[in-house]
Amino acid sequence: MKIGMVCYPSYGGSGVVATELGYALGERGHEVHFISSSRPFRLHRFHEQLFFHEVTDVSYPLFKTAPYTLLLANKIVEVANYVGLDVIHAHYAIPHSISAYLAKQMMTRTLPLVTTLHGTDVTLVGAHEEFFQLTRLALRVSDRITAVSHALARETVETFGTVDQGIEVIPNFIDPKVYFPTEGLLRRCRKYFAPQGEKLLAHISNFREVKRVVDVVNIFARVEKVVSCRLLLVGDGPEMNRVEREVLRLGLEGKVQFLGKQESVQEILQMVDVFILPSEQESFGLVALEAMACGVPVVASRVGGLPEVVQHGKTGYLADVGDVEGMSEAVLKLLTNDLRYKAFSEQAVKWARETFPVERAVIGYESVYQEVCEHRSLRSEAGGRRPEGE
C-alpha cells in the first residue's frame, strides 16, 4: 500500500509512534509518505520506502499566523494525487484529521481516513471547549478510529459519546532490536554520569505541566538522602525554568543533569536504574514501555493507560498522582533490594517484548488499512452500478 502518514514532527509520543510504525511498514514492503510541518525528529534513518513531504509556510498580511490546517489539507491532496495514496493515517484528531477531511472533499476519488487518538485529542477539550465540535467532527468523518490504550478509548466515548464505527485499541509498541538491556554501554557511560558508582534515576518528557517534572525532582531529593544517586532529566519545554529553580532550591545542582532533547533515548535508558513518570495524565506512557524494554523498572502515576503498561509489583510501582512520598518509597524498594530489583528488571523486559511487540502493532494497523480500502472499493463498485429497472 501507499500510506500518507500525517503526524506532528516534535518531541512526543505520537510522532515517535508514527515514525517507528512507518519504518516497520516500510520493512514489510509498504510505501509510507510522511506529511508534516518539518521532518519528524525520529525520521533520521534512510529507508527506500519512506518519504517526507514538508508543509510549506506562507506569509500573507491578512493572516495573523499561517493557516496550517488549510496548508496541510492542500499538501495532502498534492501528495495523494502525485503518488496515488491508498489511505491517509492521521495521528491526532486536531488538526490532522480535520485537514485530511478537507483534503478528501477536494479530491475526485475516495480516499479512506484512519485516525489514531493519542490522548491530547480528547483531553484537550477539557481545557478548551472550542475544540469540542471539531474533535467530534474528526471522529465522525474518520473511516476507522484507533486508540493507543483501552483507557483512552473509554475516555473518548465518555467525552464524545458512542462512536458509530467503534474504536479499535492498538497499543503502542517497541522494537526489541532497538530497546534492550546492554551491559557494555552501562559500563562505558556510567563512569561519566555516576563517577562514584551512584544509582541513576531518569525522567524523559516534553516538560509540560501535566508531566509534573517538579515532582520528579522532589522524589529524587527524598531518595538521595537514603541512597547515593544522580538524576538525569531528558527533554525540554515550558516547565524547564520551574524545574531548574526547584533543583537550585533543594541544593541538588551537582546531582541533577539536564541532557536536553535527545533522539537515541534507548542509549540513556540502558544505563539507568529506575525511571520516574509521575504524570497527571498519560494515555499510554510510551517512554515507560521503552524503559522497561531496556530492563529499567518504572515508578509512575496510576492514571490513564499507565496501569495497562506498568505491572504494579512486577515491572514497577504505581501510586496516586502527587504522591511524592509513595513514589519515593517505591524507588527505594527497588534500589535497596538487589534480588527484588533483578526480578523486576527481568520481568520488565519479558513483559515489554511479549505484550508490546512491533510486529503485533503493524499487523493490527495493516488490517485496519486493508478493511478501509476494501470498504472503499465496495462503495466505488456500488456507486458505478445502475439502479435496477433503468
Please characterize this protein's 3D structure.
Helix 9 (240-249) links the parallel strand 9 (229-235) and strand 10 (256-260). The protein has a seven-stranded parallel β-sheet, sandwiched between helices. The chain has a six-stranded parallel β-sheet with strand order 10-9-8-11-12-13, sandwiched between helices. It has two domains: 2-173 and 357-384, Rossmann fold (3-Layer(aba) Sandwich), CATH 3.40.50; 183-355, Rossmann fold (3-Layer(aba) Sandwich), CATH 3.40.50.2000. 46% of the residues are buried. The two termini are 37 Å apart. The protein is globular and about 65 Å long. Mean pLDDT is 92; it is low at 384-390. The longest helix has 27 residues, at 358-384. The protein has 390 residues and is α/β, with parallel strands linked by helices. It contains 15 helices and 13 strands. Keywords: Transferase. This is Glycosyl transferase, group 1 family protein. Residues 11-177 form the Glycosyltransferase subfamily 4-like N-terminal domain.
Short description:
This protein is an alpha/beta fold and 390 residues long. Helix content is 47%, strand content 16%. The chain is built from 15 helices and 13 strands.
